[in-house]
């Protein structure tokens, strides 16, 4: 009983600890706690709780629900009953939870039994497979042995077949010798036959094979026999081509043995072409087939290349026999037909030879597949006949126009239009034309130099050439007498007065710049090309002829020489005019022609700059003098050797000078304008300037009173100057209008003259006031006008002259804008070209300095 009590106490203690918060002995799940809690709820709440538990899909929950129902049926009123009930329910729950596992274990045992049965069947199958594998291995071994034996037999068969084929292949080159020999001995064999090409191919293959296998037995003997066959074939082809060409040549030459009534030169061009080319063209197919076979094999065997070269030479020799006499006779006929007309002769002869070269080139390609160097030599020889025919005429031509036109024909019509578009057929012809062109250019240069020397530098002007300003006044009077000037005297753009060949030549040099190069010379009668000084006109014509006919360096040299001589000629003519008329006429004449010259050379797109090389011997004289002074040191061994110093110091130096013709024209124009301004000033107020200079020199020597310094004398000088302004200024302006006929140019030249006149009176006034010590009464007696008064006087004279000119002279409107006016002013009075290496150039004064 004591033990039971102790056990009960232990049980009670454990029951007390089964649900403590810390380390419970039997922790319950949330579901179990809910079940225990439901025992203390009323019946309705138990039913609700039961519904909640039923909603959970859990076998343990179902079992608990059933157990709870048993509790309802069975009353548990003691703790012992509860424990027993709890143990029973717990065991049932455990059994119920293990039910699924027990079923799974049972199922596994069944599967294990099935697997054991399957393994037994597999073991039996493996035993059968091992037995089958052994049998298969036996059969496979026997089959492989059989296959290896069969493959070996097949390989032996293939090797033997290949060996047999190789032997047959190698032997066929040897066995073909007999077949080729039989065919060559056949009298019916022809090079035009279909089997001839096959025979050549077999022969070439055999020779190439033996060449590549010289180590074969008897290869050298067979090679010799094949070479003999090849020689026979080559001879057959050579004979065939030669016979065809010879027959064609005989047919062409046969008409020459016709009766005397028929001559080759009486034939027309069509019959001549049919004669010289028709027979050969008919024979071309017979030769072209053979030459094609030869050309295809010329790189494989030297015999074919030699044969082709022989055929080329024979063909060209036959063509020489046919063409040389005919071409020579035709060229001679052209020289007779165009006797005296060298341009027509050159054009016709070149055109004839162009057709001949092109026809020969086409005919050659009808016989042979490709062009050769031998054909170029043949065309060269034909073209040389043209050169030999025309060259003597070139040496006889003396006219620049003819030489220039010949150069244009050869360069433009022949080289650019024909040779450039057909370089293959006309290449040799082009080389001959180039040589002929060089000869024409050389002749043109020689004649141009002679022309420049004789007709420009050494030109002797006639009285009519120097009849200035009479010629201009006459032309102006003619223009005034005509109410409506004819079209050829009207000026459309003040560029030229008359349409002439000279203007065409010059204006066509630079067509793109025609709108920019506007004339600055007005519509003076001097603008007429016929009124130009002959050397100016000849210079421009000469340059226009040379511009497109010679190379640029040659043109630069000739142009520099021509312009230099032209400037000299114009200056010489101006001096003669000054001697005949007045200084102003000569200077205006020179200014006008220099303006024309500068305007007309502007379109030439070249630099008129020539480099001139010369030797300077200036130091040699000094060195020679030093050598004489140091004769005692001629053989000195030191650095003071006189001979050595002479060699070092006396060596001539090479100097290069740049000569610019454009700047020469500008420089000469500038100089003449300055002289004209100075002479025009002296023409109007020269007495004042001379008086001031003379009195200045006198007063510098002595301060005594001079009779010339009397107020009355000074007044007479002033009145004379004013009289000159009133009466001579109009003549000066009239001369400027007549020569220049351009308001802008006239204004530019007249402005410094006006300023010089005013300055002369101002200088006189200052001189008599200071050096002359004139009193107010003396100044009143002298009546020296002020600068403003002189300006008014000049303006009145200019207006009066302008009114007279408008009434008597046709209106002359300026064709230049304000910008052009500034350019003219800068070019005429403010041109300061860079000094050339020819020597120092005097500084050119500016416009303000001239004023």
Describe this structure in words.
Belongs to the COG3 family. This is Conserved oligomeric Golgi complex subunit 3. Its main location: Golgi. The protein has about 850 residues and is mainly alpha-helical. It folds into five domains: about 100-185; about 190-255 and about 270-440, no CATH class; about 455-480 and about 525-605, no CATH class; about 610-650, no CATH class; about 670-800. Helix content is about 75%, strand content about 0%. The protein is built from 27 helices and two strands. The protein has helices at about 1-15, 30-40, 45-55, 60-75, 80-185, 195-210, 220-255, 270-295, 300-335, 340-365, 375-395, 400-420, 425-455, 470-480, 500-505, 535-545, 550-580, 585-600, 620-630, 640-650, 660-700, 710-740, 745-770, 775-780, 785-810, 820-830, 845-850; strands at about 610-615, 655-660. It has a two-stranded antiparallel sheet with strand order 1-2. Helix 13 (about 425-455) runs parallel beside helix 17 (about 550-580) and helix 17 (about 550-580) runs antiparallel to helix 18. The chain is flat and about 195 Å long. The N and C termini lie far apart (about 165 Å). The model is unreliable at about 255-265, about 485-520 and about 805-850 (pLDDT under 50).
